[in-house]
Amino acid sequence: IIDTTLSAVTFTNVSSGQHTVTITDATGCTQTTQVYVGESEPLDFTLYSTSCGEGSDGTLTALISSGTPPFTFNWSDNIQNEPQQIQVTGLTAGTYSLIITDSIGCSLERSAIIDCDTLYASYQTYG
Predict the structure, then answer these.
(1) How many Cβ atoms from other residues are within 10 Å of residue 51's Cβ?
(2) Residue pair 32/20 in contact by the 8 Å Cβ criterion
(3) What domain of life does the UniProt record list for this protein's source (predicted)?
(4) I need a labelling partner for 68 at 20 to 30 A (CA). Which of 44, 46, 95, 109 fits?
């Protein structure tokens, strides 16, 4: 039995496959339809870091390979302003983490290290 005062009903935790939905109005009129619920892809992503040369020019980028959009992003506490985006910039050396949650409530956490201790050099040879 479903609340008849609602104009829309959402069903959660429905298994994948073919389902029959029957709607009956206040006068007893019914309408039946078939609804197919597909399987959702499990959430997965990779977190890439770009090491900074010096200072605070490190970057983290999340590449989401599967899941059900839209996604929410929960970056670690050492990232300011809690950005809701797949890339953050202006980072210093350290370990960072990201928890992504998809629209069906699946969450996954990944971590990455930004290393600013690596020495970079460029050179040219003249012949």
Answers:
(1) 15
(2) yes
(3) Bacteria
(4) 95
The residue written with tokens 């197919």 in the block is 36
Q: Is the pTM for the entire model greater than 0.85?
A: no
| Partners of residue 100 on adjacent β-strands | 73, 108
Q: 59 in a domain, yes or no?
A: yes
Is 51 domain-assigned? yes
Q: Which residues 6+ apart lie within 8 Å of 107 measured at CB?
A: 43, 99, 100, 101
Give the pair of three-digit tokens for residue 36: 């197919």
Residues of the domain holding 86: 44-114
Cβ atoms of 40 and 69 closer than 8 Å: no
Residue with the two structure tokens 């506490």: 77
pLDDT in tens, the chain (127 residues): 555 566 677 777 788 889 998 888 888 899 899 988 887 789 999 999 887 767 788 889 999 999 989 999 999 888 877 678 889 988 888 899 999 999 989 999 999 998 876 555 455 666 5
The answer to the question of residue 104 being in a domain is yes
